[in-house]
Specification:
The chain is mostly helical. Helix content is 72%, strand content 6%. It contains 7 helices and 4 strands, in the order ββαααααββαα. The protein has a two-stranded antiparallel sheet with strand order 1-2. Strands 3-4 form a two-stranded antiparallel sheet.
Length: 171
């Protein structure tokens, strides 16, 4: 056992520090177990709520700030077959379904597949409308709105990694 004289005249022992470190490690282990248990479900529900709310807004004309972009993107993706309110309704339905699947956990794997398709639509404007979204001053606010969704992709990957650990089949 080693000891060190402190400036106050007291002596500190390594075992005292070891005891503090043991307690800190025990507390950290409790926090880690708690986070391991709730982190992925919390991420799944919060991502679901984001898609549920933003999807529901798309059902209401004029309520979504990306309404024009959604319609133009669908027009480009479908070679002119889908545009206008049909584009908004399709996007809204898809996003609300994803949101409900994530919030409830019901049909989660199908929701993950639908989300993958949604991400194609979300990032398509970066390809179709590059000139409008990026100026000499940098990305526009709309481009930034789209680019931040890379975080949603990472969140979806974490959720998928957890959801896909179970085998496919009946319970």
């Amino acid at each position: 056992m080693s000891s060190t004289a402190l400036g106050t005249g007291r002596v500190s022992t390594a075992t005292g520090l070891d005891s503090v470190l043991e307690r800190a490690n025990a507390a950290q282990a409790v926090v880690q177990r708690f986070l391991a248990r709730i982190a992925v479900p919390a991420l799944r529900v919060s991502l679901g709520l984001v898609f549920l709310v933003f999807g529901a807004l798309k059902f209401l004309p004029g309520a979504s700030p990306v309404e024009d972009l959604v319609m133009r993107t669908w027009n480009s993706l479908s070679f002119g077959l889908v545009d206008g309110y049909a584009a908004m309704a399709l996007t809204a339905s898809l996003e609300v379904f994803v949101g409900l699947a994530f919030v409830t956990g019901f049909l989660l794997r199908i929701g993950l597949l639908a989300l993958a398709g949604t991400f194609v639509g979300i990032f398509s404007p970066l390809v179709f409308f590059t000139g409008e979204l990026f100026t000499s001053a940098g990305p526009t606010l709309t481009a930034q709105y789209i680019l931040k969704d890379v975080v949603l992709v990472a969140a979806a990957m974490v959720i998928a990694a957890k959801a896909l650990t179970r085998p496919i089949g009946r319970r």
